[in-house]
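Thread amino acids onto this structure.
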């Protein structure tokens, strides 16, 4: 008599085992690439941050472009945070660090440079203000020799000391116009630096004449010398000397 085996019952599955399998798969997905040769994604923000870091050099040309290294530094910090929190699924830490060094370094360097320049310019403005006031006082006191010393060598080459004193004496002792009794700086100045590193400035002084209710404003050119700021010219007070007509007629006029 043939015996038949009873129908096999389906194997009982433990639900907890399924849960453990799912957790294991999730762990594998979040640690992909660790200890294996599998592909790990490069963080896009790190790439962009590195590009901004290189472009930060443009900020050396114009202060407006300082926004580039600032944005680059922020992107670098964001990229570093993203990579750190990716559980190894993202790379690009080196690019983010390069972007941070370039952007952050240039940003800090430019800000420090601007602060130093601002301090120096503030000192220059104070010196120019004192120079203008001093000139007015010396002219009022008729100390023309000391006033002449406030002008740089280029001016003194153009205008001899005797002509300088005669010109100021004519203004101060004229019977037809009141004398100068005060000179002050108007508070605005335009600085320039040439290729040789020499500083010059253009500003305006307010000239007040004794008994006059109003002030005249005249342009002033200054030059920074090793001895400090000096007047380079005051065109309205000392117009260019006309060349003498002592030479004979030109060959074409003969």
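Threaded sequence (254 positions):
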């Amino acid at each position: 008599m043939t015996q038949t085996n009873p129908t096999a019952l389906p194997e009982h599955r433990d639900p907890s085992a399924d849960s453990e399998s799912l957790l294991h798969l999730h762990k594998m997905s979040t640690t992909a690439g660790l200890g294996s040769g599998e592909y790990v994604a490069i963080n896009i923000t790190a790439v962009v941050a590195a590009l901004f870091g290189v472009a930060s050099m443009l900020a050396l040309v114009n202060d407006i472009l300082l926004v580039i290294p600032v944005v680059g530094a922020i992107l670098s910090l964001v990229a570093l945070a993203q990579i750190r929190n990716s559980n190894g699924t993202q790379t690009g830490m080196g690019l983010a660090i390069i972007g941070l060094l370039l952007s952050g370094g240039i940003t800090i360097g430019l800000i420090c440079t601007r602060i130093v320049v601002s301090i120096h310019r503030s000192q220059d403005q104070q010196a120019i203000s004192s120079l203008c006031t001093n000139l007015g006082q010396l002219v009022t006191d008729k100390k023309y020799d000391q006033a002449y010393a406030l002008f740089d060598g280029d001016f003194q080459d153009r205008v001899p000391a005797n002509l300088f004193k005669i010109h100021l004496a004519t203004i101060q002792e004229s019977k037809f116009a009141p004398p100068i009794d005060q000179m002050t700086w108007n508070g605005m100045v335009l600085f320039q630096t040439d290729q040789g590193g020499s500083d010059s400035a253009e500003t305006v002084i307010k000239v007040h004449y004794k008994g006059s209710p109003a002030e005249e404003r005249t342009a002033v050119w200054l030059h920074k010398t090793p001895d400090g700021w000096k007047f380079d010219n005051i065109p309205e007070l000392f117009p260019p000397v006309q060349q003498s007509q002592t030479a004979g007629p030109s060959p074409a006029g003969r």
